[in-house]
Amino acid sequence: AIFAFYDLLTPTLLLLFTFLLGVGNAMMRPAWSASIPSFAPLDQLSNSVTLNTLSTNITRAIGPAIGGIIIYLSGPTTIFSLNALSFMVLIWAIYRWQPIEPKAPSALPVERFFGAFKSGLRYVRNTQALRHVLMRSFMFFFFASAAWALLPIIVIREMDMGSQSY
């Protein structure tokens, strides 16, 4: 938001920030999904997972349209600021969150983040089929996200149009 406000946002920075948002999302999504049981009682767990998936898909469907309207009405700085504000609201909600305690403690030992991360990397490194799937997915999403991230710059600089042309 700060870079956009001061008109310092270059295509390289936009790609870098898009990449960093993707990395953050890739780290957050599994943790978010794993935390759903602590948000809802066991008898409502299935509905909670369904609601979480539904909200994600609705956001993907209507989010770009709403974002385009906001960019048209007030410019890219507003959209970046709203995105930053939404993360502040999420951080506040996590800070205030009181998890539902599980009924029975797990018999498994607690695994620390970096230990689990290293185990996951080791598993991927030793499983050829999984390595291939992950590499194909990375290549597809890396280049696809670059195209979407650069679309505003293409519209403005190459097509000589404004945000209303989105």
Report the end-to-end length measured between terminal Cα atoms: 20 Å
Strand content: under 5%
User: In total, how many beta strands?
Assistant: 0
Summed up, the domain count is 1
How would you spell out the order of helices and strands? HHHHHH
Please give a structural write-up.
It is a single chain. With 166 residues, the chain is an all-alpha fold. It has one domain. It is 75% helix and 0% strand. The chain has helices at residues 2-5, 11-35, 45-74, 76-96, 113-125, 128-158. Helix 2 crosses helix 6 and helix 3 packs antiparallel against helix 4 (76-96). The model has no long low-confidence stretch (mean pLDDT 83).
Defining key terms:
single chain, 166 residues, mainly alpha, 6 helices
Summarize the structure.
Helix content is 75%, strand content 0%. It has helices at residues 2-5, 11-35, 45-74, 76-96, 113-125, 128-158.
Sequence-ordered SSE layout with sheet pairings:
Elements lengths: L1 H4 L5 H25 L9 H30 L1 H21 L16 H13 L2 H31 L8
